[in-house]
Amino acid sequence: MQATLSQRTISQVLADAFEVYRKNWGKLTAIAAIFIFPLTLLGHFITHLVVVQTPSRAEVEARGFEAFPAGFWDAVIGAVVLGILTLLITQIVQGAIARTAAGAVLDEPLEMGTAYRYGLVRLGSILLVGVLIALAVMGGLLLLVIPGFIFLVRFSLSVPALVIEGTRGRAALSRSWRLTRGQGWHTFGALFVSAVLLGLATSILTLPFAQNWFGQAVAASVGSVLTMPYAAMVSVVLYMDLRAREGQSDVNVVRREFDAAGVPA
User: What's the pTM?
Assistant: First the structure.
């Protein structure tokens, strides 16, 4: 990491994020794989059970609820429980990955245990930020659609602000909003291109298994493990870029904020 923060073009944001990802891919993917891989596999399996046991429309019309086998409702309950569990665990993993990504960009490497401890301790804050963003985006989409995408872009750096500056809840959203002020298209461009690239990568992995739910589940799990860290890295590098555009050039200031935002040993 250079001694000063610098402004980057969209291509430079993506390239710099990939370079840091390449140097730290082992640790980043390991953090993601521990929970994301088994959760994704289990999610596909339960979805497969629900689909297999779902009766046809004609059967439902003829027999009503009796057309649904007992295993169907067990699978549905399992899907709901797994969904809640996945939501909570994913927030921990995202916090751990975001913290590790920020440390990698700042040349302050973190051990896997430290990263996960951060994600666990900050679970409430990360979950709150995610819920607030989801509510804002859904509200915007229900109104006129376009405001939903605006909110999504303007709040996209809330998690980097949380893990680097220690801001939480609405303060994290406000910080992201200030950082992206006047940089909406720049932010949207970097996030959109990275999302398209990651989506293509996942599609390439899962396409050969379109007719095989287990193969598709494994491929989707691998895709999630590989793409989640890069998506986090893009957000962190973009955050650094916007800090530079804001006028903050001293990387040591950001390092001090990063250290202060950590959790006690």
Answer: 0.87
